[in-house]
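To: structure subgroup
Subject: Chain for Friday's discussion

All,

I'm putting the inputs and outputs inline so they're searchable in the archive.
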Amino acid sequence: MGLTSDEVPALAVLCGVLLFAGTVWLWPRLAGRGVRAVLGRVGLLLATQVAVFAAVGLVANRSFGFYGSWADLFGREDGQGVVVDHSAGGSGSLRVVGERRVVPAGGARPEDAGRIQEIRVVGRTTRIASSAYVYLPPEYFQARHRTRTFPAAVVLTGYPGTASALVDKLHYPRTALELARAGRMRPMILVMLRPTVAPPRDTECVDVPGGPRTESFFAEDLPEAVGAHYRVDGGRGSWGVVGNSTGGYCALKLALHHPGVFGAGAGLSAYYDAPSDPTTGDLFQGDEGLRNRANLWWYLEKMPAPDTSLLVTSSRTGETNYRDTLEFIERVKDKEPTRISSVILESGGHNFHTWRREIPATLRWLSERLPAR
């Protein structure tokens, strides 16, 4: 049974209920002062507590998509990673490995509701391999649009995150479809994946010296591979990038560092400097220039302002980044030609429910900022 399946949390809840009932039933028999009675009471209470906490954790993980598998949870994920090609002239690749419908969409044909394709991509220069989901709008399949190209955006989860959560929990494809049907945004291709392309390490979208070149993968290899396989708009600043939490920091950094690729970057509940903790390890290997470049505060102050558009979101109550976000807005205001927009909610925590409230406005904003072809 998979970590995110219905059966696992249901089994944990059932165990908690049975242990609670067993504790109530057996408590009179364990009321004595002997060692066996005391150990029995301690054992029942401990087992009940463990079952309850496990059930809560499993339900929360299924709702928020923190970990996608048991191997991911225990730091043993080996389904993805950094691929090193020692042959000369190695090239990148993109392979479609699955397809699914946009649910609910009100139509079975791709010409009516679009499609979600699962892909495996290997970066041409970085040799990083990752899985992703690609949303293709209905127009992509319609005969009258066979030669049309479409704007595209990279959509990133937080850390550790699961790419499927962008589809099933945050509803990016469904929201994009509904907005386009209502005429509130242009049809757009979405490339959805997590920033953790070298699991279990949190690379914070940094080109780690001697390690995975994550920033180069997102800024160079991924747009190149997707553009070679799908009908994506070309030209300067033709891509967008959006993410939440860690993905939000990555989105803002990619737009600032690579305006020639990303004409717009949106950070939902983002932070503005790469952390250093046990999940990241030493990202910079003593390279102060690399460390500074990853600090968006430093970058805004010391580097020339890039020609790109940024969007930041927060909540007055419930988000820890609120004051930093206001400060970030003020600093960007004076950095033309960089443009800044924001979505500030009255209240909302660091969770999927909050981000679902921000995603429609964010997608409309992206659609308006990317060049029309």
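Points worth raising on Friday:
The mean pLDDT is 88.
The CA atoms of residues 104 and 174 lie 7 Å apart.

D.
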